[in-house]
Amino acid sequence: MKFDIYQVAAFTQERFGGNPAAVVPLNQWIDASVMQKIAAENNLSETAFFVPSGASEWEIRWFTPTVEVPLCGHATLASAAVIRSKLGHDEWPIKLQSASGPLLVDIESDAFVLDLPANKPVPTGLPDGMQVALGAPVSESFIAKDLYLVILDDEATVANLTPDFAALGPMIEHGVIASAAGDQVDFVSRFFAPSIGIDEDPVTGAAHCVLTPYWSHRLSKKNLVARQISSRVGNLKCEDLDQRVKLTGYAVFYLSGQISV
Fold it and tell me: Which of 1, 19, 62, 247 has its CA 20 to 30 A from that of 189?
């Protein structure tokens, strides 16, 4: 079997910035074990697969190098970019059916606007040793389904984190978001998920489904500007819609090719 494949950097307008995702359009679903092997071979934080299911509608799934995940924002944006630029679809918004329910994607001035479910965090304690594994004092801690959110003192503390991933991985089911108020934007973050094969994800849409309601409440504003300060850096506009969030960002194509499996 041969399939087209694209690599797209999401939440950036810069070459080699943002978060690279692989995207594989399919005419019909193939076995999940094959999709997992393709994702492992790509060795990117996520590989997205989608199949058409109706007019302006697709089903979508996402795989890290080790597991399938229920939601991935940056690979959704990358998939929308492929649907627009490579498949030539020109009727927007589109709907993507997923394990997290229906996701909508629209276009505004060449940026992609993702409409995703909010994942509101609630206060929680941290597993023993997590603060040490992160390597910085935590001022507040929350849980949102399987994602931890830790609030740190300032942007510099988030930027300078050097987590012990071997220690951190067994403590978490999915991932941990480290965040602080930003110096030039409303808030900054980094995202670590060694338990699912991603030590650090460069720019994470699913994390911003947690961060948007938290910072919207804390800053008393519905529209926010965010930056994920990984080594690649990603920029997002975020809007709190209570039960949903809107994340806006750009996409840059890097690679087009064909794979044989």
Answer: 62
Residue-level pLDDT at 244: 98
Write the CATH number for 103: 3.10.310.10
Whether residue 28 is found in the same domain as residue 76? yes
pLDDT band with cut points at 50, 70 and 90 for residue 21: very high
Q: Are 135 and 55 members of one domain? A: no
Q: What is the mean pLDDT of residues 137-153?
A: 97
| pLDDT score of 34 | 98
Inter-residue contact 47 to 75 (CB < 8 Å): yes
3-state secondary structure of 68: strand
Is residue 160 classed exposed, middle or buried when 0-12, 13-18 and 19+ CB atoms within 10 A define those classes? Answer: exposed
Judge whether 57 counts as a catalytic residue: no
Q: Where are the alpha helices (DSSP H) in the chain?
A: 32-42, 73-85, 130-134, 155-159, 165-168, 205-219
Alpha-carbon separation of residue 21 from 8, 73, 83, 221, 222 (angstroms): 5, 10, 14, 31, 28
Range of the domain at 55: 2-116+248-260
| 59-81 average pLDDT score | 97
